[in-house]
Amino acid sequence: MTDLPNYSVGTAAERSVRALLDHAPLVFRSRMTHEEFHEFVLSHGDLRIERDKHGIITIHPPMSFDSGYYEGEGFFALKQWSKANKLGMAFSPSTSFDLPDGAELKADGAWISMDRVRHLRPEERKHIAQIVPDFIIEMRSETDRIAQLKRKISEGWIANGVRLAWLIDPIKERAWIYRADGSVEDVHGFHRVLSGEDVLPGFELSLASLKE
Question: Which helix (H) or strand (E) holds 27?
């Protein structure tokens, strides 16, 4: 990644973002401080903005019709289970998480146990919280590269303490299950049902239901 512009918060950056979002993810380095990046994310709630541990910022393009549907189905299933079991809280794709290695990421669905949520102070809950989800879902869209999503899960989510992660590819009808012990299970075909295992006991997602 070379010759990338250095942006700070301001109108020039915003114009560049708006101009490029219709085509592909916008990736750039920035001199933003931690606080400036939080301000940038919170003031552009309609955009999906992430930063990795190296300080590289990615602004993702809007979801297509199909991708928005698949993302919504995955989160809806997680939210339904979470509300019924009351073991924790489910977080929407717009939620940012401030991770221990400096990355600030979003998932297409995330869940945190209630015991861990209770440790957050009231003022922390009003900002981008420094907390690692127990579980996340990443749903591939047309503009996503599988290799990049795999790296995001292994180096971003799992490396920071996520206990279980699903990467679902509705385009190729394939999925991957990432576990805290470093194992990765490759799921071929959408005839399978994914399990929340011991992280989300009783939670299941039928991959076939995403295509119904």
Answer: strand 26-30
Q: Is the pLDDT of residue 74 over 80?
A: yes
- What is the predicted pLDDT for the residue at 9? 47
Give the three-state DSSP class for 106: strand
3 state SS for 125-152: HHCCCCCCCCEEEEECCCCCCHHHHHHH
Fold annotation for 65-211: tt1808, chain A (3.90.1570)
What confidence category does residue 46 fall into, taking pLDDT thresholds of 50, 70 and 90?
A: confident
Pair 182, 158: CB distance under 8 Å = yes
Please state the domain extents for the chain: 6-60, 65-211
**In the chain, pLDDT over 70 holds for what percent of residues?**
89
What is d(CA 17, CA 126) in angstroms, rounded to the nearest whole number?
Answer: 26
Tens of pLDDT along 98-155?
999 999 999 999 999 999 999 999 998 988 999 999 999 999 998 889 999 999 999 9
**CA–CA distances in Å: residue 30 to residues 8, 33, 37, 40:** 6, 9, 9, 11
Tokens representing residue 181 in the block:
């012990």
- Spatial separation of the C-alpha atoms in residues 64 and 6, rounded to whole Å: 28
Amino acid at 57: I
Q: Which residue carries 């979003």 as its tokens?
A: 106
- Cβ(178)–Cβ(168) under 8 Å? no
Q: How far is CA 183 from CA 44, 98, 165, 190, 210, in A?
A: 36, 24, 11, 21, 25
